[in-house]
């Protein structure tokens, strides 16, 4: 109603973009009729500012930043309605590897800031929640009243909305966007490094087979001119009573074990190269019209 979530979202977007990540802002579909919104003097400025998100939009991003005011210590019904539509994506595994963080706003200092986070964690457990912890000293600032916590940034709006986000709130919001983008970016880059291997010059330059190279059927091929196979063990001393045998196939003496041919090394398998798909982040703000 008073634009507090929009103000925090603006700073969070700045933080995300400072890392080079792509931001795709959306709003969540309003469920209240316009007649009710009008009587509530609800702010609908976000409706024309950002497009309405659909569950399928989640497939195209690496991270989700959710912003919504608190309602009785939890998120508004509009957000729950959106979450309920993502069951198919979750069942198909499309939400695996999607990170999420959030921010909120409440009327007073003890009006449900942290409980809004806690009551949302069951859904976030199906993705992967990234808190800001105390990664910025401002989170633990006690010089002024604030709503932020290690869970994420929050602001105090006042019962009538006359309070606006403080400089401390806005700084934490921008930090949260930057922190989250760096965290998710590190994961994505690491995942790509282990699953997508680009061919190198060395990998493309496979040497031709050379004489004497072991094969799966013949073992080592002995070049012409060699009449005896070499061995690390000293050959048995021949005596006058020894029975002559064919060249290259010496008869083992008493107590000498026959050598077991070693298995040929397996040929290295080429790693399939996967096509990388450019993704981004989006900051999602509830457009219930009762934005605090």
Automatic annotation (TrEMBL):
Q: Which SUPFAM superfamilies match?
A: Flavoproteins
Gene Ontology MF term list: FMN binding; NAD(P)H dehydrogenase (quinone) activity
Q: Which GO terms describe its cellular component?
A: membrane
Low complexity: bias regions: 230-253, 260-270
The record places domain Flavodoxin-like at 1-180
Q: Where is this region: Disordered?
A: 196-292
Question: Which top-rank group of organisms is this from?
Answer: Eukaryota
InterPro entries, A to Z: Flavodoxin/NO_synth (IPR008254), Flavoprotein-like_sf (IPR029039), Flavoprotein_WrbA-like (IPR010089), FMN_Rdtase-like_dom (IPR005025)
Give the UniProt family note: Belongs to the WrbA family.
What protein name applies here?
Answer: NAD(P)H:quinone oxidoreductase, type IV
Task: Give the organism, scientific name.
Answer: Kwoniella dejecticola CBS 10117
- Highest lineage ranks of the organism? Eukaryota, Fungi, Dikarya, Basidiomycota, Agaricomycotina
